[in-house]
Amino acid sequence: MMTGEMLFLSAVLVVAFTVANSFTVDSSDSAVMFLNYYGYLVRQPSVDGSVNTEEDMTKAICNFQHMANLEVTCELDNATMEKMNEPRCGMPDVVGHNFDAKRKRRFALGSRWPTTDLTFRIDNRTPDIPNPDDVDDTLIAALQVWADVTPLTFTRVFGDTPADIIITFDQTDHRDGNPFDGPRGVLAHAFFPQSGNAHFDEAERWTINTNDGINLFQVAAHEFGHSLGLGHSDIEEALMAPFYRGYVPDFELHSDDIAGIQAHYGVNSGAPDATVETNPATPQGGQCTGRVDSVTTSQDRSTYIFEGSNVWKIEFNANQIAAGFPKTISSTFSGLPDYIDAALYNQADGTNHYFKGSQYWQFQNEVMDPGFPQDISTGYPGLPDDLDAAFAWSGNGRFYFIKGDQYYRFSDDGVDAGYPRALSVWNIPGNQVSAAVQGTNSRTYFFTPDGVYYRFNDQQFNVAAGYPRDTAENWQGCPSAIRATPDDGDNGVKGHLPSLVALVISSLGAFVLQNY
Q1: Which has fewest Cβ within 10 Å: 160, 259, 282, 431?
Q2: Residue 101: inside a domain, yes or no?
Q3: Does residue 284 fall inside a structural domain?
């Protein structure tokens, strides 16, 4: 039976779990925190701190029971709490809040690498296994599990050489925003491309080829699945299931794992699905005003800033405009018109939609998909033409569209009931927005027609202190280069936040946000 206590959590409890997820699920309150942390509860924007409804809670428990292959009673029974307390991966189970307990059981996909030739680096080793070479061999064997069924190759690098996948053994707070919780509980976590790093909790007792302790090979193979872009599977026997199953002597990848990784990288060809030709074309003059038309991120975690007929690109983890940019839009996004109205990145399927007039275009990174453009009325029923901005809001992962002094919230079935609403509820000074984006740091940014931008505080539901700031300087590198070390991720692209983990974990703020 659901109680009122399950429906109202204090900010202190939520923040305590977000910061140090070390606890036992033994009550309604701790179950709520677990369900929030692992993505089963959809947070909605609210200014009064109200939280999810009883219906939301019941659905979350139903979905968790389905994911965990329990009897779906939709009640918080002992079996459910016992499962919540089992050792597991620290990655959220629900990506983008699109979980459907009635769907066919199968793998889940996150972002992917744009190449099949990857590098990895082992920065330290667990002392639990006396011979360091045994640790290395085990980690390499765990990568090989995925190479055996795809065109993927893994090349080891050493020292300070940059690598796609960096492997470390860490304890408690290891400066990635996801502290470990000691023995049992969370065993390890990894980040989707294009971070890919994998961290193992040194508080565990790691072992090889024995039922004692925690089997390093199986956990590593699971985490490397995340590093390659696989989410959690709801098939209990799959490697990518979220819970640790114990040592399996005759380990083989489940057919579900194979189907998932091959959906990303294929079977026979080692080439990426799309090859983007490097085009050195640059716009005439290369000047920028800061009065941008659109800003968006993309599947490879690049950030693109559109103004007129030109586009600027910032590559992930860079602190400057990419070499050769700005360029003309036509030379970078073949088929896309100039002066676009709005841009939206859908993290669930890795596509970008660009809007102009009554049409929209679909791209994957810089390559347009066949069959586009299409009418907005077909792909986004209920939305008006000539949009001003579009974004996935960091507070709840939902899609929002702005036109004039109104905004729309969009779901799979169309514009949500009760929309459009007044843009003024977002408290953007001037009440005018020309572009918006969820940065790669998972923060939301609003750009105005007068060349400044605001970072939004998703918890307090207002503009963050210290804004507005200059768009041209901080996002386009004009008149000088982007600052080398912005204090707080000023342009939304500096930093090392994991892709799908950032979206889910950063939304676990002090209040559950609802109704907007």
Answers
A1: 160
A2: no
A3: no
Percent share of the chain, pLDDT over 90: 47
Angle (CA) 309 313 319, round 5°: 145
Question: DSSP string covering 154-174, please?
Answer: EEE--TT---SEEEEEE-S--
Helix (H, G, I), strand (E, B) or coil at 313: strand
Q: Quick one: tokens of 474?
A: 């901080």
Segments of the chain with pLDDT less than 70: 1-23, 42-51, 95-106, 268-287, 317-319, 395, 459, 479-516
Task: Count how many domains the chain has.
Answer: 3
Question: How many whole angstroms separate alpha carbon 50 and alpha carbon 382?
Answer: 29
Out of 204, 223, 307, 366, which one is annotated catalytic? 223
* Residue-level pLDDT at 9: 36
Q: Are residues 202 and 67 both part of a single domain?
A: no
Answer yes or no: do 66 and 154 share one domain.
Answer: no
143 occurs within a structural domain: yes
pTM over 0.70: no
- Measured between alpha carbons, how far is 85 from 99 in angstroms, rounded to an integer? 21
3-state secondary structure 440-485: CCCCEEEECCCCEEEEEECCCCEECCCCCEEHHHHHCCCCCCCCCC
Q: Which residue has the tokens 């400044």?
A: 452
Residues 466-505: tens digit of each pLDDT: 888 988 888 888 753 233 233 344 555 433 223 323 322 2
CA distance 18 to 37: 7
